[in-house]
């Protein structure tokens, strides 16, 4: 635009250039209007109430055959991995599968191929990622699987730069790392259930294994901090399996497998739904948070032959085929997340907030081969989770979550660019 205001151009020529640009832009922008309004437009599933296979939105016809990066299959990728357990210091011991003797390596040589897309989902580009997030901040909010994801990101970015420790607490559960060249900070916030929770009181035998969950109270360990961040990625799942007593307004309203007299078992799905509803409300009601919230959907475990404490294990060496049906619990957790996301999305639109869906449950469901199993510790180690089918080896399938994350960040960046164009033309 600086060129158009130069005195070296005659006024008629300047007018001609402005008119030509305006005509071109007003021709192109309507084609992308749904995408401008919602950068997830081509990515997300339609709510269950959507019955038509063809939808007319803003004069643009779209179908379910449009490119959806979250629907696809795993295909071989001989170029992977892009780091190793010896080149990345951010790998926790219980995810360092190669260190503890995992003999096979095929599980690290796959990438995600979306169905119905002209191009594959590009593998993670650390340079592009760091340029997009230059001068910004990103928080991973959740449990150890969320931290597993953040460690994967650090390892992938190690191809460009290692961060410096910028933690404000001497606590691994609340760590921060800064990439000084790019002025980019990532942080992890530990929260087991997203809402306020109190661990079991072993001094009281009848409550020795029970969590107290306050389902309509936020966990302030993370909600009080999110105003400092441009991107917040929330996830939750496996801790909700644990027996819990449910409170609302500080009154017991039920439980999950508490086996206490005169208390209704509402099941873990009740608590799971309420936890996400409370978390989304806290974010959308926050006056300090003006960034983008991403829901990272449930990452399933893959125990076979028994539960985690009954000899269950995950010994598969390859991904499932794309038509493999999810187990019932995974489907229920995922469905609850989607329903609560759509509910929050409507509220976000009214408040001018941005909430996006990282719907990676199906992709991760197809990777029973990517867990540490018994290769997360020494053979003689006395550990609680002897066969780990919850977390993910590094390097491993969880690295591909950052392929999805980068794709979403690119769309957010594109939306911002088009908004600037609109502003220039207004």
From TrEMBL:
Q: Can you list the GO cellular component terms from the UniProt entry?
A: membrane
In which broad location class does this protein mainly occur, judging by the first location in its UniProt entry? membrane
Domain Trichome birefringence-like N-terminal stretches: 65-118
What region holds the Trichome birefringence-like C-terminal domain? 121-408
What membrane topology was assigned to this protein in its record? Single-pass membrane protein
What InterPro entries has UniProt attached to this entry?
TBL, TBL_C, TBL_N
* Subcellular location(s) of the protein: Membrane
Keywords assigned by UniProt, alphabetized: Membrane, Signal-anchor, Transmembrane, Transmembrane helix
Q: Where are the transmembrane segments?
A: 15-36
Q: Which residues form a coiled coil?
A: none
Record family assignment: Belongs to the PC-esterase family. TBL subfamily.
**Descriptive protein name:** Protein trichome birefringence-like 19
